[in-house]
Amino acid sequence: MRWLTRILAGLAALIVIAFAGLYLWSSGAEGVWSYDTSIIINQPPEEVFPWLTEPDKLIRWVEHLQERRPLNGDSLRVGARSREMVNSHGELLEMISEIHDLEINRLLQIHISCNLFEHDARYELTAVPEGTRLRFTGASLFKPFLFRLLTPLLTPFAKQQYENNFRTLKALVEGAEPVTEE
Fold first, then answer.
1. In a designed cystine with 95, which of 34, 40, 47, 84 is the match (CB 3.0 to 4.6 A)?
2. More confident position, 5 or 167
3. Closest to 111 in 3D by CA, of 153, 71, 150, 139
């Protein structure tokens, strides 16, 4: 019977050490991650910008986005809100998106919230000789404690999804066939 107690105590100690390690690795379970990238799209800003705002176009390049429906009219303006449905591993996740800053063909800043996270995204479009430099900066705060602990493990997957999305966006805007990497 002593050996069973020792084994259970050892397992409990391993679990405590694992959670302590995750806590330290996640910077005290802050649950915040950020991402900054840019891409050159061989089209002018006025051809790129609608792909950031029009529901039918967004669904084509934002991985897992199933639906985007305006909540307070169909206008593109600061304060406009929409309901977005995302397929998250077979389950539909509802998110609310709100425009916080807007300059047509130049800037779009949105805040997205759901029960799992809060996310701020900023898209800046700059005309360059090759077409448009699209710069994206985003920051997320995970709400559930376990997700906060797992932020260092989840971040690479989220970054890969953004990279895939932007490759798809570039291909669609340029009229090419989208290519994604796993």
1. 84
2. 167
3. 139
| Domain assignment of residue 10, given as a range | 1-29
Between CA 178 and CA 164 the distance in angstroms is 9
Domain co-membership, 125 together with 157: yes
11 lies in the same domain as 35: no
Query: 45: closest CA among 124, 145, 100?
Result: 124
Q: For the beta carbon of residue 29, count every other beta carbon within 10 angstroms.
A: 19
Question: Is there a single domain that holds both residue 70 and residue 88?
Answer: yes
Residue with tokens 């000789």: 129
Beta-ladder partners of 82: 70, 97
pLDDT tens digit sequence for 60-84? 999 999 999 988 877 789 999 999 9
Same domain, 96 and 12: no
Q: Please answer whether residues 86 and 66 qualify as being in contact, where contact means their C-beta atoms are separated by less than 8 angstroms.
A: yes
Please indicate, yes or no, if residue 1 is contained in any of the structural domains.
yes
User: CA-to-CA distance for 163 and 62, rounded, in angstroms?
Assistant: 11
